[in-house]
Amino acid sequence: MVRDRQHGPVVELNRIQVKRSRSKGGLAGPDGTKSVFGQMCAKMSSFSPDSLLLPHRVWKVKFVGESVDDCGGGYSESIAEMCEELQNGLTPLLIVTPNGRDESGANRDCFLLNPAAKSLLHMNMFRFLGVLLGIAIRTGSPLSLNLAEPVWKQLAGMNLTIADLSEVDKDFIPGLMYIRDNEATSEEFEAMSLPFTVPNASGQDIQLSSKYTHITLDNRAEYVRLAINYRLHEFDEQVAAVREGMARVVPVPLLSLFTGYELETMVCGSPDIPLHLLKSVATYKGIEPTASLIQWFWEVMESFSNTERSLFLRFVWGRTRLPRTIADFRGRDFVIQVLDKYNPPDHFLPESYTCFFLLKLPRYSCKQVLEEKLKYAIHFCKSIDTDDYARIALTGEPAADDSSDDSDNEDADSFASDSTQDYLTGH
């Protein structure tokens, strides 16, 4: 661990160009190179080995056209953005499972490494994905990645089994068994005209042998063996590249001590967001923990779906998952600050400072208003910016005490200095 720096190199990322460059095929630029993930991957060559061994921020972000001063929130947002891009088609690295494509069986909402992504650029991207996984393990900051269980098994150094294939493609093995056990005569078999190919995980047909073009009664056992062998090893190149990237950040040989599920938990935390964990690190400024407003806030959070809780975390911290344990918060408190400068309070939205895990609430008059304003904020106020939108009353008038920004800047500055002091003293 390198502890003498608060962050690694400063990188400039352009989120505005991503939508502009999205092609008809869905990728952001050629092979997803214009995505935030692609931009970040291209900058990795300038990172020294030391900068990947930091305990917190491995880079500092400047978002082009967004006035972000990254004290941690911009960094978290860049990682959340990359996880989103990996799973929404902006990059070519992940594909939905065959079960997901067919809408049947388990792991429908999970992703596999794309076996068709084999170019030098793709391999470099897979290495960077490995770097991200390693950073998540080292810093305790979870990634929101929904990879299928067999992927985690391979990343932990385990071999796939036939049962793993069925987990992501429930029709594959029954199809092979039909061919192996079919009681048709040789003529009937040839009349079926089954090609000597197997669909890969992305649905493309792969020729298994230069010797045979079609499956016959005589070669069907060979076909079944080759088909299973292909599917058990079709991700090997991609897995090796990801592990190579992880090796830049964590000792990869030690991953064999863990099961696939344990590795997933180390990288991704829990997809469920346990409120008791969030409550245990909550502190309050300008209000008592027993006040009605605070009780309403936690009741609203209890009523949120897991997706809404994830959106709330993104709004207030730039992340979509909580760390695994209280220790992994690394001394960072979730601060709820209530201010009276919003007047009338029911006309204002909550504010957040993602760098400081800080939520500022107006003193809302009732639980219903709090729920309405909080839901609006988490769904529609996603960009990190010092643009003052949240400080404009919904009537269009500026906040009562906001003729100048000084008071608010003092709030942020004093909070920042407190946090910095805590960071330096190890609290």
Automatic annotation (TrEMBL):
Q: Give start-end positions of Acidic residues composition bias.
A: 399-413
Q: What's the short name of a Pfam family annotated to this entry?
A: HECT
Highest taxon of source:
Eukaryota
Q: Which InterPro entries match?
A: HECT_dom, Hect_E3_ubiquitin_ligase, HECTD3
Copy the pathway line from the protein's UniProt record: Protein modification; protein ubiquitination
Q: Where in the cell is it found?
A: Cytoplasm
Report what the protein is called.
Answer: HECT-type E3 ubiquitin transferase
User: Can you name the source organism?
Assistant: Gopherus agassizii (Agassiz's desert tortoise)
Task: Output the lineage of the source organism.
Answer: Eukaryota, Metazoa, Chordata, Craniata, Vertebrata
